[in-house]
Amino acid sequence: MNDQQHYDILLKRGTVIDPAHGLHQGMDVALKDGKVAAFSPDPISAGAEHSLEVAGKLVVPGLIDLHTHAYKDVSVFGVEMDELCPRTGVTTAIDTGSAGHLSYRGWSVTSPSPPKHGFWLT
Question: What's the pTM?
Answer without folding.
Answer: 0.67
